[in-house]
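Technical annex B. To support the medicinal chemistry partners, we prepared a structural model of the target in complex with pyridoxal-5'-phosphate, based solely on the information shown next.
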Amino acid sequence: MEHLINKRVKEIELSGIRTFYNMVSQYQDVLSLTIGQPDFLTPQHVKEAAKSAIDDNQTSYTHNAGTIELREAAAQFVKEKYDLHYNPADEVIVTIGASQAIDIALRTILEEDSEVILPGPVYPGYEPLIRLNGAKPVHIDTTETGFRLTADLIQQHLTSKTRCVILPYPSNPTGVTLSQQELEEIAALLSDKNIFVLSDEIYSELVFDKKHQSIASISSMKEKTIVINGVSKSHSMTGWRIGLLFAPSYLAKHILKVHQYNVSCASSVSQAAALEALTAGKNDAVDMKKEYEQRLNYVYDRLVNMGFDVEKPTGAFYIFPSIQNFHSNSFDFALELVKEAGVALVPGSAFSSHGEGYVRLSYAYSMNTLRAACDRIEAYLTSRQSR
Ligand SMILES: Cc1ncc(COP(=O)(O)O)c(C=O)c1O
């Protein structure tokens, strides 16, 4: 019967991150720096809010778009923090993680043969969803522009079929962010074009050197931009599965239909927890961010000392060193590190073909783990040189 399975589903593959993670879990005594999951606990007051919600019997369906309290809090949060203006009544949708927000956004705007521009290397969650819509991902090589998708690069790849540009900044896997100037140049290019922007800002609370800026805060862009956010990374709440989607009402009303038939609504208990996170806990990410930045500085210095060429990240909790001084193939190098050094990093090829020649290290791990992993990598590279 397998031949009856939808061809597009058959053609997509499991994420290379997970595949690699599953593969290395067979090896003993490996320090894994592979997963993009904050190592902090969900803040206690957020957990208490969820417990109270259960005791208060907040256990039924909510409005399809999420409780009005949470939508109001989400709108207030992005207004205060990023100068974004959305009406909680009809421009905010609470989703099952950022992942589902991306899915329903793409399903609403894409058609057969639409083209979607996105940077490469890039988070592997977009491509399969684009392909399931019969649309075509157009990965642009950003390895020459410090992993930044520039207006020039976008312009070179625009066609009459371009329906959407994905701006995933701060970036997983590279940790880079775009400057206000770069966002304005992209806005100037796209403002008179019938092209949507999907701005995945799930790491917006983890920007080190400045305040996070969203392209939707540039006035000409709100009408064509879908902003994706959520509490997974900002509040260490990956398992609660709460994402947020912000879009102008003409667009949100159609996205909401897809969402409604897809999941009805996000978990009521998780929504109560997210409400607490975005109100009483609106600055919960500040301390986590300080810790991530210290770890970044440590890991960056160690990698540079070992001889890796690496762009210093300004956000998220990943660093993406080039392996060209050591190996030509990122999968083989990552496997070698697992077997010989006892450290797991994700091969860059998991982030599109433009990630080949790099590895991703997640520093969402304790300083002790990071120190031990860096020591192991360094010892291995030194012994390799003397062979
Ligand atoms: C860039 C990016 N977008 C979206 C997601 C998915 O987030 P969520 O867990 O909220 O679905 C991730 C998760 O790693 C991510 O890195």
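Notes passed to the chemistry partners:
Residues 2-42+284-385 form a domain with the Aspartate Aminotransferase, domain 1 fold (CATH 3.90.1150.10).
The mean pLDDT is 96.
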